[in-house]
Amino acid sequence: MTVIDGTSRSAPATSTRTQASSGVNACTAVPEPHPRPTGKDAYTISEVAAFTGLTAHTLRWYERIGLMPHVDRSHTGQRRFSDRDLDWLVFVGKLRLTGMPVADMVRYAELLREGESTVEERQELLESTRRDVITRIAELHDTLAVLDHKIELYAGARRAPERHSA
Description:
Strand content: 5-15%
Strand order of the largest sheet: 1-2
Helix content: 55-70%
Number of helices: 6
Radius of gyration: 22 Å
Number of strands: 4
């Protein structure tokens, strides 16, 4: 299973290592689902914090600003997160890694809740974010080339005295 827009989808179970060795593009491959206890679909906020690495404070904030859909509550009022909530948080984590502003993530979540009529707007939001990521990747590649060049210069400078002393 994988998640697109917080919805579980069937996906082949291949590991990242298998994808890399088989020549599958890791950037376009469907990600593996987050491991969780089998047969459980009601998680406390502390369990979700442990699964995701997010703090309980962040999870509450996500809910408050509308980034998390309605989270169920137990009869005592404790939050009970579902597998679908965890899938959504994985997706939100990916959006965070892209550098997408929180306001855009909240807008995306609002559009998702509005339904099928917003598919085009959601797609454009993701395409815009993708363009930003591609630009950042190009900048990082250029930066990496500069670092590699400098490292090679320093390595060459250290080797040069060794050649002259022999």
